[in-house]
UniProtKB/TrEMBL annotation:
Keywords: Cell membrane, Glycosyltransferase, Membrane, Transferase. This is TIGR04283 family arsenosugar biosynthesis glycosyltransferase. Residues 11-140 form the Glycosyltransferase 2-like domain. InterPro entries: Glyco_trans_2-like, Nucleotide-diphossugar_trans, Trfase_2_rSAM/seldom_assoc. It comes from the Bacteria. Signal peptide: none annotated. PANTHER family: GLYCOSYLTRANSFERASE, GLYCOSYLTRANSFERASE 2-LIKE DOMAIN-CONTAINING PROTEIN. It is found in: Cell membrane. Its main location: membrane.
Length: 232
């Protein structure tokens, strides 16, 4: 997508690492929504060294592709550093946007500092509805957002808090905590849809208990580097 810097209002930043399976569906949705916003939205994919067809698929699209060091926080910070928009939306590659998502983000950031969407989890397990409900409820109470919920923020605020900390896990929690000190997030009830793959592969209850445990340890001050090895 070829845009002049003066045209861009919203920059959508998507870190990628071996996401070829889900990219065609994501690219189609992004193309449709970007077309609705004319020249006000740019999409930046940041590849962290994919060994599958991810970069080929992105390069064949109308969107921008840059490469950088592996690590979600590193990739998102790199994308933000090259973004032309005054508003930033950080989106996981396995997450699908609701209708008019870009327009909703722009309208929301015109009146607030940052926010996120509600989330639903894609998959057949009935438990996914319960998990998503608790994720959204907990986020409203705590003022903390996760990357699965599509965090969006004014670029000025993102820079002021130092962006995502350079850590292998909980970078979304850390960013949310820093932004929350400035203003509570605006929580949109429109739902992004994220993949339930990791719950299904690892076991739903096992994954829930693991994430609760890791969040507790992080809250207690255990370094993210130590937690990352347990997560993997």
């Amino acid at each position: 997508m070829s845009l002049s810097d003066s045209d861009v209002v919203l920059s959508v930043i998507i870190p990628v690492l071996n996401e070829a399976v889900g990219l065609p569906a994501l690219l189609a949705v992004l193309a449709e929504q970007a077309a609705q916003c004319q020249d006000t939205v740019e999409v930046i994919f940041v590849d962290g060294g994919s060994s599958d067809a991810s970069t080929v698929l992105i390069a064949a699209s109308a969107f921008r592709l840059i490469s950088g060091p592996r690590g979600r926080a590193k990739q998102m910070n790199l994308g933000a550093s090259q973004a032309a928009g005054s508003y930033l939306l950080f989106l996981h590659a396995d997450t699908q946007l609701p209708e008019r998502a870009f327009e909703r983000v722009i309208n929301t950031l015109e009146r607030g500092l940052w926010g996120r969407f509600d989330v639903r989890i894609r998959g057949d397990a009935q438990m996914f509805k319960v998990i998503a409900w608790f994720m959204n409820w907990r986020s409203r109470l705590s003022g903390i957002a996760t990357g699965d919920q599509g965090i969006f923020v004014r670029e000025t605020a993102f820079i002021e808090v130092g962006g995502f900390p350079d850590q292998p896990l909980m970078e979304d929690i850390a960013l949310s905590s820093a932004l929350r000190e400035r203003e509570a997030p605006i929580c949109l009830r429109n739902k992004v849809e994220t993949s339930g793959r990791r719950w299904q592969e690892r076991g739903i209850w096992r994954t829930i208990l693991l994430m609760w445990h890791l969040r507790y340890l992080y809250w207690r001050g255990v370094p993210a580097e130590q937690l990352a090895s347990r997560y993997e």
